[in-house]
Amino acid sequence: MWGGGVLIAVHLTVVAVWVGALVHVVRAGVALRLRGETATPVVRSYARMALALFLLVFLTGTLAALAIVPLDDVTGALFETSYGRWLLVKLGFVVLVVALAAWARRHLRRRPEAPQPGISARVELGAIAGVLAVSSALTVLAPPVSSNVPLAFPPPDVGPVVGLGTRAGYIGVAVSASQGQAVVKLTAPNTPDTRNRDQEGIDLTGNLTSLGSSTQELEFRRCGLGCFVAPVSWVNGENVVILRVDDETFGGGRAAVNVTWPPRPDERRLQAAVDQMREVEHFTLHEQVTSDTATGLGPHTRFRISGEEYLAAGPFSTGRAVSVTRYEVHQSGEVTLALAYPAEKVFVLLTIDRRNRIVREVLTSGEHLITRTLVYDEPGSHAGHEHGE
To answer: Which residue, among 186, 158, 162, 182, has the nearest Cα to 230 in the 3D structure?
Structure first.
């Protein structure tokens, strides 16, 4: 960064000398011509100096541009960003200045005693003014950023969002899928070994597979501790995102989420399910809890509770979530909703039957994966039976 500042300072200083010298030549040429004298000595002296000034301006300008434009995607940075297009306009003005200077130098060598082309000097001065004007425009534009440069913060979601969660071994995985991008946040267990570690302690790779298209390798870059973002071209329908987490302390593992695109919000179905569950007196809840998905879903436990008690233990008792999208529609008529509570690092897949009763819940938090199956009593019975999945 310090070297780039020095280059720009030298570049601007030399440009100022060049412009000042050219203005002096134009003024001197006009004054000499009014007195009937030739401006050849003045133009000749300027031509020798201008060549050295141009080479220095070109060298420092090129090095400064290389420090700003990402080298891993020069074509995209120049032709697909406002900064790059204005930089090309500036380059066009520079080429014009060089062409005029070369023509004037050639004219001076071939006909040293002929009147010197004052028009070319004035056009050259105008072209340099164009270079300075474009340079001013570049100062207010954000330069292109390499896709490999880490971001300080997670980028905001773009348009509608699908929020999903899963686990890779001991690592919690939160995926925020929005227009053109996927943001993945990884949560490791909070231990003395992980509280003060740097970003290099955890890494992420992955790919995207969609129906009818080839596998797309995701190019993640960091956006904070445990945060990664990648550009994604979602296709309509199911998009399977396979993630590979590598953690120096907890090992990591593999995980997958299905992103249904475009998002289909369905807050009304969630509210209908919550209202229906409040009417359920008793049912049997089968639950499994694990912190490490590499060892399975965890031991099985069974409870007899009411719908009110069940809702009180979950995050969706109010019938609301930051995002509620339709995740899957089953042939049986059941619907699975994806609920996201990103601030709490909680994500829920909620399967609802035709009667708006919740029959399955998969809750992912930063610490646990909880799988629940809800079995309802037949009319007139007092015990639960297994609900067919």
So the answer is: 182
Sign of torsion over alpha carbons 224, 230, 235, 241: negative
- How many structural domains are present in the chain? 3
CATH number of the domain that residue 280 is part of: 2.50.20.10
Sheet-wide strand order for 253-261: 216-218, 202-210, 237-247, 253-261
Q: What is the pLDDT of residues 116-163, one digit of tens each?
A: 455 566 666 677 777 777 777 766 665 555 566 777 888 899 899 999
- The segment with the largest mean pLDDT, out of 78-82, 123-127, 378-382, is 78-82
Residue 201 lies in domain:
162-261
Model confidence pLDDT, tens digit, residues 208-241: 998 777 889 999 999 988 999 999 999 999 999 9
Query: How far is 357 from 349, CA to CA, in rounded Å?
Result: 14
* Token representation of residue 208: 């995207």
* pLDDT exceeds 50 at position 111: yes
**Domain end among 261, 296, 327:** 261
379-387: long-range contacts at Cβ-Cβ below 8 A with a sequence spacing of 24 or more?
A: 383/284, 384/283, 384/284, 384/304, 387/359, 387/360
What DSSP line would sit under 163-217, residue for residue?
EEEEEETTEEEEEEEETTEEEEEEE----TTTTT--GGGEEEEEEEEETTS--EE
Coil, strand or helix at 113: coil
Decide if 303 contacts 285 (C-beta within 8 A).
Answer: yes
CB-CB contact of 21 with 53 (8 Å): yes
